[in-house]
Amino acid sequence: MAPLLTLDALLFNMIGGQLKRFAKARKDLLVAVNEIVRHMFDEIDYVLEGKNAERFAILYSQGSGGEGRTSIKVPKVYWTYTRKSILALEWIDGIKLTDAERISKANLNRKKMIDEGLYCSLRQLLEDGFFHADPHPGNLVATEDGSLAYFDFGMMGDIPRHYRVGLIQMLVHYVNRDPLGLANDFHSLGFVPEGTDLHAVATALSVAFGDGRRQSNDFQGVMNHLYDVMYDFNFSLPPDYALVIRALGSLEGTAKALDPDFKVIESAYPFVIGRLLADPSPDMRKILRELLIRDDGSIRWNRLERLIAAISQQSSEESSKKPGDENTASSSDWRSFDMHSVVSATEDLFHFILSRKGWRVRVFLIQDIVKASDAFLQETTFPGIFEEEGNTGELNPERSRMIRRLINGVQSFRQAISLAPNAWTAMLIRVALKPESQRFILDVFLALVNYSHDKVPETCWICMSKYLNYLDRQWSFLMGLVELANSSAK
What InterPro entries does its record include (predicted)? Predict the structure, then answer.
């Protein structure tokens, strides 16, 4: 057997050498071939595969389900009968994920299985780093109780923290449509050769992705956009990252067997946000700031609004949860945010904004606050608050939308605070007592006074008149109802 394996290895290296020359000396091709050969040797070492299975089980199958039940299963290794060329495993009955008919007959919850599989995969790639590199439908089955069972632990990857953080950063830059940020990520991770013009890479990425309409949230779509750029700039993927790409592609393909509309990037985003909020390390805090604050210091209000809305949605879901709903909620608990982590991340964000490095953010914040106050003080907009929603903004739709967004944002923030009122109150008091906060509040007050001192008197009288008119109409409506009730009684 050994001579045959040696011959296979030599054959792969010969093919790799010829392809390398044919493909204009692209150095990553031979590396990729060598990595495949290395994993071929690993996959025929069943002692190593058994150890991989046990490590995977310890990391990902212990207590992942509700009420002590595990939603991820790994077959037990029987070491008494296992040798380098023999692997003895526990038998697990299951249904192939591609067998839609049997899954339907078993009344299995497809969404729950996708959630559990996605959560397990994201933990592998972004938290612990030890991952199954080949999660295709042949290596996963659904059990009768709705759990997912993994098999075949011969091809595994183990990526260091630097690469895991890099994955998160690339996702954030992709969502932010920041091609230069992506180009810098590729450079820092060693994907592009030293001396490469990163601005040229960024330009090529901009062309490849086009405008927002062409931006894809499925992994295959993203890779289709990247292929030409990777070839033109001689990208060289580290071996472990080549396995990550394989794992992500296999994951999406497996999930699509259960849900054809599944998109791995879109589905992974809540997990990534949760990681950014929960991890207080400097590099993760930096990525969180990049998610919410542009390079020039301006705030991505749309992104912040969506984040606050997601947290407040968790509040409304928990308040409406019934006592018997624990099992149904367990499958998607990983999408929830830990409120103490959210409070801690918010405090760190405040500290950055109030620091010397955050001076540009403070300038934009003051400008945005002045714009918001101006919208409230405009006679053409402020009265719209007292009109029916269908009439709001007829005179100035842009300012009306701003007011509505502010009102919705404040309401969402109040709901988020209701999840951990003591933690939020303590944090806000700590921040408010800082001298930097007091100076910033004074700057905001002076900016508002300087901007609106000549507008406030006239606008206030107009707003008061409109408000009195609104109350008069409401009073007339109520009196009409009273008269109607009296006439009906007679």
Answer: ABC1_dom (IPR004147), Kinase-like_dom_sf (IPR011009), UbiB_kinase (IPR050154)
